[in-house]
Structure formats: structure tokens, C-alpha cells
Write the C-alpha cells for this entry.
Amino acid sequence: MTSVFYRGVTAKYPKATRAKGMYIFDETGKEYLDMSGGAAVSCVGHQHPQVIEALCDQVKSMSFAHTAFFTNDPQEQLAALLAAKFGEEDAKVYFTSGGSEANETAFKLAWQYWRAKGQPAKQKIISRIHSYHGNTYGALSISGNMPRRRVMGDVLLDWPRIEPCYAYRHQRPNETAEAYGLRAANHLETMIQQEGAENIAAFIAEPIVGASLGVVSAAPGYFKRIRQICDAHDILLISDEIMCGTGRTGTFFAHEQDDFLPDIVTLAKGIAGGYQPLAATLSRSHIHAAFVDSGRGFDHGHTYVGHATACAAGLAVLRVIDQENLLENVQKQGQYLQDALETAFKNHPHIGDIRGRGLFRGIEIVADKNTKTPFPDGDNITKRLKQATMKHGLICYPGGGSYQDNLGSHILLAPPFILQPEHIEQAVEKLQLIFKEVF
Ligand SMILES: Cc1ncc(COP(=O)(O)O)c(C=O)c1O
């Protein structure tokens, strides 16, 4: 008997009671190897003593003071650290509690920015098919993830969306990666011409698509061209790095590897490593200046904006990443993970693609490898994979819809940055058993 309204209303969940490093334990003592950090959250591992100490210190001195009345040291220090990592010390950071709120903040910044600049008609936000930007009404309206949109029927707003940059499925056989990147980016130009640049506030994209496609990086030059198009049409570029940011791909920001500078970046998940709910919306100085210059301010806010304890967790997590040189380990183990997955599964008849950057890896599952045809019952594959992984004590993130609507299946891996070769070997062994069972 429970009074909890579970995520899966009739599902049964093991009760997690303890965690340490790469592992979570349930009440029976069963061990689960956390190869997805939940959903790309636990980046410094579970129960890191330095983060726990920083949290306890903050709670003892001051847990919370509403930021409509006060500022606090943790949010000041964390904002300064993020601005320094971004490389623009005048950048400003707005802290919220989760990824959806961070993106809602980004959308409101974009709308109010254009109003402050005297262009109130710039309202539409273009996103991509197969994108996920959150589960609040605005963020889901601006997402292209069909399985998550479909359940909402017609109530969502229908914003313009373009094709993703997804070489595995859309690059033509006679096309170079660069030519494909350019062709994919030009879909944005076509959409802007169709909708009218005077009506468009921003374009939002994940530099590496996480849950909707199963870790898909853009083709070379794609985001450079996207930046050019946004500049040419006076459109803000929002980089959703909620899943792929905070070091997950081997650099602190994911956009660094695609060599473009967004106007707004959103971070969540790894930013406080699961120790507290925290998210950040970083905006470049020209955005903040527009609000100051117009005298209109920025009209927004939630109760827990800049929460002192959440920001203290974020600060401690970023310090651990730096002090323990974890991004070097992300790059090193990321390559080892890719190699180990390829050695084990490259010739598997149902593994179509193994891809990613750093400790952000995706495995695309197909019914037929030559034609890349997905299984006709994608939902069922996702469900069976989830059941089998939990049975074998492996936490990873199976998903669907990467082909179209509910077709296409993948597994996402996003382990903590403390990962070592023995964990990779253990994960591959478990995946071998799991695939044998599911296929
Ligand atoms: C890319 C991306 N954006 C936004 C979100 C929403 O974040 P949250 O679930 O913390 O609201 C997610 C969550 O998975 C995400 O992966």
C-alpha cells in the first residue's frame, strides 16, 4: 500500500536506500551500476564527501533566504565561476531548480529582450524535430519529441520545427559530412523565410541531442552555419546543454566543441550532480544590457530562484570537477567506453550505430542493420530493455521515437565522470546478457 502517485502509475519500483560512487543499492542490498547518472545527473558520483560537507556547512549557516530580498554567497560565487568558464565575465546567470524552468527562463529572456529592443512581434521560437526541452507547458510546446508530445493531444502550442542534424539517417551516401552539415543547417534559413524573421525571437537546439535521438552530435560546420543564419536574421541562439553540458562531453560547455557562441545557454542535471535540484540560464552581456538600458527589467521569478543550498551544491560539484581533473577522465574513459562498445556490439545484428562524445554515448537499435529499419514495436523494446537492465543491476536510459513518432529505439549512457575501466567492462558484460534476453 502506497500513497505515492508514481511516474508509472501501476509500476513497481525497488526502493533505493544507499548510494556510493558508481553504485546505488536497494533495500534488499542489490547493487545497481549507475551507467546513466539517472538521466545524466550524477556527474561526480554518489555521496561525494566534499559536496556533502559543503551542503552541511551551508544548511547550518543559512539554508534559504528569498532572493527577492537578498543575494547570497553561493549564487554569487557560482555565477562568477560559470561566467569565467563561459569566457565572458559580463555574462549573467539566472538560477532556477530544473531544466524545464531554465528553458522557460531562456524563452522569457528572448521574448522580453525583443520587446525591450522595440520588436515585440518577434515571438516565435524555432526548435527541431526530435528535441526535448522540458515538460512544462511552454518547454514541451517548443520540444519536438513526439512520444512526449503525443500524449498531450492538441493542447500544446504548435511552434515551427526543422529537421535535426542526424547523419546516421539523413546524410546522403554521396554527401560529405560538411556538405550534410550545411544542408541540414540551411533548413533554418528556409523556415525563417517561411515564417518571417520579424516574427522569430530565437532558435533553440541541443548541441548533442540526448533523450530524443540517443546522443547525436551535429555534422561538422552545422552550428557555425546556424550561428551565421541567426546573426543574419537577428535571431537569438539558445544552446540547451541541460543534458550535454557541465563537462559531460569532455569540455565544460558542449558548444565549445562545435566552435560557436550561443546568446543563451541552459544547464541543469550535472550542474549540482543530483545533490540538489539546480539549473542555470546563462545569458551574454548584450542580453542583460538590453534590460538595463530599456529600464524595463526582466519580469520573471520562482520562489527558489538562486536558492543558497542548491547553489552551494553546484559550487561544490564544479570545484570537485576542477580539483579532481574529471574532464580529463571524461575524455579518456569516453574513448575507452566507445571502443569497448564497438568491440562488443559492432557486429551485433540489431545494433545500428554506436556514437557520442566524452561520457555521453548512444546505442541505436534497429530491426535490420542494412536498411536501418526500426523495430515495429519500439515502445515494447524500450520497456523490455528497461526491465532487463534493472534485473541485471544496470542503470542506463533506454528511449524511443528516434525514427518517427513511436518508432526507433536507443540506449543512452551518461555515467558519472569518476568512471573507471572496470566499470566499463562490467557494463559491457551486463549489456551482452541484456541484449541476448531482449532480442
Ligand atoms: C536537453 C534537455 N532539456 C531540458 C530538459 C528538462 O529538464 P528537467 O527534467 O530538469 O525539467 C531535459 C531533461 O531531460 C533535457 O534532457
In short: The domain at 52-323 is CATH 3.40.640.10 (Aspartate Aminotransferase; domain 2). The first strand starts at residue 16 and ends at 20. The chain has a mean pLDDT of 97.
